[in-house]
Structure formats: structure tokens, C-alpha cells
Amino acid sequence: MKNIKIMALMSIAITVFALPIANAQSLGAQETTTAEAEVDVNPGFAPDSPFYGLDVAIDRLALALTFGSEAKSEKALEIARERLAEVKAMLEAKKDAHAEKAAEEHEAFMTEAETNLDEIKNENEDSELEINARLEVKLVKHLDKIQRLKLQMSEKQKVLNKIQEKAEKFEAKLYAREQKIIDKLKEKGMTDEEIEEKVSQVREKAESKLEKRVPDQIERAKEAIQDAKENVAANSKEAKMLAKAEAKLMIAEQALENNQLGKAFGQARAAEKLAINAERHAQKNNENESVQIAKKLAIETKENAEVGSGSENSGSGEINIVI
């Protein structure tokens, strides 16, 4: 990978023709079954290298030479994956400033992925679902890598949370896009069961390794639900979201038993998302409540101080005459 990029310094022409090879080596990284290997992707030149600017420039050129909004969105996700590997390498080397630099580049390419997702136009619902499923597969793998990295480096949550939030923003757009496609199918008279079956089949077609990934996704959903239970108050709006998450998890587990892998993956993913959102809403409500309590205490403290000050002034003004 590095040899290819060094050659790019000698000739832009060589660089352009070498891009497909370079991307296949660095961004298409071979998948393995271990969690650690799934996080590791060849980062090419790291942000502490004098050639890092060239690395980023080549990636931007590769994106510019990719045609079609769908292909551009996929390419941007692949490049974001390399940026994540760079963040990991820099955090491990205790070079936090360089990790932040790679995180900024990750955000830039995720923004490119979002922009091109918005520009994908297709009147055929089947094709739209297939596009969505392919992008979802890449994104879910990316989110998995971020989560594993957060578990490995719990002391580096700030930069990793920023990366995760950007990836989850793209996920939210994918979900909204899928819901619009589903609404179109309903308008054409398809039942919920027929739509669910169609979506499941598309997911299975897009993800060849669902048999291995579904159990992991179900476990992540369980963990998200358990974490949310610790922060969600009973009978709250968030508790209802959590109940929906548990219902979807049950459907996912049943689907897995019936070997309905696409359905199982989709329901488990939805369960995890609902649980995460429920917990975040609950935490935000708790934070708002804490702020209100703090403001109230500050006002009361100020009022008490003013009352005490008034009493002291009144007492110092008295003249006692003894006869």
C-alpha cells in the first residue's frame, strides 16, 4: 500500500491507474473471524507521517473518480474505515492530537457518504431496498469496529464518541430512507408481512455472512437493553421505547430459530437502536432535571444570602440607649 502511494509522488498518472489496486489493498482489507482483526485495517500512511496529506489527497481523488451517488457513498464509507484504523493506530501510539486529525478526516468522509446518500434516486423500490441493504452492511461493520475499539480503549471515549455519533447519523438517514421505501410499498397494496419478507430477503442477499453476524447482533441488542434499563424510569416514554425494543428482540430470536436470518438481523438491529435511543433520551432528561435543580438551588442560595445581608444591615443600624 505504501509503495503504491510513494510511486504516486513520481507520477499523477501512475497514481490514478493505481487507485483501484491501492483501494483493494488498504480499504478492502480481508475479513477474519476475530474481533481484533475486524478492527484492524491497513491505515496506509498515519497522520504523523509527512506523506499523510498525500494519502488523504489520493483518497479524495479516488472518491472524485467514482461515479454514481450510490458508488460514491460506498466508497466514502470504505475510506472512513481507513480513517478509523488511523485513529486506532494513533491512540495506541499515545498521539492523541494526530488521532483527532484522523477523526476529523473520518467525519469529512462520513459527510460525503451522507451527501451522496441523499442524492441517490431510484423509482424502483426493489432496487432502492438493495442499495440500502448494501450500504447498511458496510455501515454495520463500521459501527461494530467502532464499538470494539471503544471497549479496547475505554479511556479514549471522547474522540471515539465523536466518531460513533457521525456514523450513527448516517445510520439514522439509512433507516429513514428505508421507512420511505416501505411506505411506497404499502401504497402499492403490500401487507406488513409481505414487506417484512421482502426486506429480509434483500438483507440476506446483501450480507453473505449473516449466519455468523446475527448472533452477535442479538447479543449487542441484549446488552443495549440491559444498559438502558439502568437509566430508564418506569412508566416513562423511554420505558415504552424499551418495551418495543424487547419485543423486537424476541422476534429476532424466534426468527433466528426459524433460520430467517434477514428478519432476525433487522429486528435485532432495530431493538438495539431503540434501546440506545431510550437510554440517551433518559440521560438527557436526567441532565436537564439536574440543571433545573442546580438553577433552583442557586436562586434559593442567592435569595437566602440577600435576606441574611438585609438582617445584618438592620441589626447594625440599631442604637441601644441604656438609662
Task: Describe the 3D structure.
This protein is mainly α and 323 residues long. The protein folds into two domains: 1-208, no CATH class; 212-311. It contains twelve helices and no strands. It has helices spanning 2-10, 12-26, 35-39, 52-64, 69-92, 96-118, 125-152, 157-187, 192-206, 210-229, 237-257, 261-316. Helix 4 packs antiparallel against helix 5, helix 7 (125-152) packs antiparallel against helix 8 and helix 10 (210-229) runs parallel beside helix 12 (261-316). The longest helix has 56 residues, at 261-316. The chain is globular and about 75 Å long. The protein starts with a helix and ends in a 7-residue tail after the last helix. The model is unreliable at 8-39 and 316-323 (pLDDT under 50).
Characteristic key phrases:
single chain, globular, 2 domains, 323 residues, mainly alpha, disordered C terminus
Short description:
This protein is about 80% helix and about 0% strand.
SSE layout and pairing:
Elements: H1 2-10, H2 12-26, H3 35-39, H4 52-64, H5 69-92, H6 96-118, H7 125-152, H8 157-187, H9 192-206, H10 210-229, H11 237-257, H12 261-316
Helix pairs in contact: 1-2, 2-4, 4-5, 5-6, 5-7, 6-8, 7-8, 7-9, 9-12, 10-11, 10-12, 11-12
H-E order: HHHHHHHHHHHH
- Counting structural domains, the number is 2
Shape: globular
Kindly state the number of beta strands.
Answer: 0
Helical percentage? over 70%
Report on the biggest sheet: none
Mean pLDDT: 78
Computed Rg: 26 Å
